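Forgive a beginner's question, but would it be possible to get a protein, spelled out as residues, together with the matching structure tokens, please?
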Amino acid sequence: MRLADRYDLAIMSTKGMSVVASRHLIDEVCGRHGLPLLVLHDFDKNGFSIQGTLCGDNHRYRFKHKINPIDLGLRLTDVEKQGLTAESVYIEDTPKARRNLKRNGAKDDEIDFLLSGQRVESNAFASRPLINWLEAKLHKNGVKKVLPDTDVLETAYKAAFVRRFVADGARELESQARQLLDAAGVPSTLRKQVAAAFKIEPAAPWDGAVADIAGRAAERFKTPDRG
């Protein structure tokens, strides 16, 4: 399925009501860079509260940037269109509960449905219908694979070309270096040279001393055009 790769999505889960850290992340990623926030939630009172808390100011966190939330659902229209089965839940129909749902974006018919003691969770879907439904939501909201502007593509092309060219050259040089090393061998005085390096710089690590000795030996093998 690989929805994240196919639509260039960054997926996060709050596991319920969002904590301050998740809102701060949304503020910095979506708000600062002008990216939409796609919100997927169950069709129940908690689902609406999660959405409202996720992208709205409260006494614990105030957003520094404007957030553009897109509600993917579940909503009552999705439940009816997809033929999803509701489950019973205890919830008291009070003016406070109605105000809470209204404030968090629920419509009047959705409020009546939820406060009648019913809810529908996303696990009411089978796997494939869930993916099909979600992809239809993404298409409806214009979410698609990112294709950068031409100048961004050209910059990336140039960087990739140089990396590949250098990498191929590095492999050739590595092969040459191993051949030279096989021919020359490791100096028989290596241990004495490392001990001598310690006398000059007692705090030097042994592997650093070995690297210096090998580096000087490698320099002697370089041809003039490489030096």
Q: What stands out?
A: The CA atoms of residues 77 and 110 lie 9 Å apart.
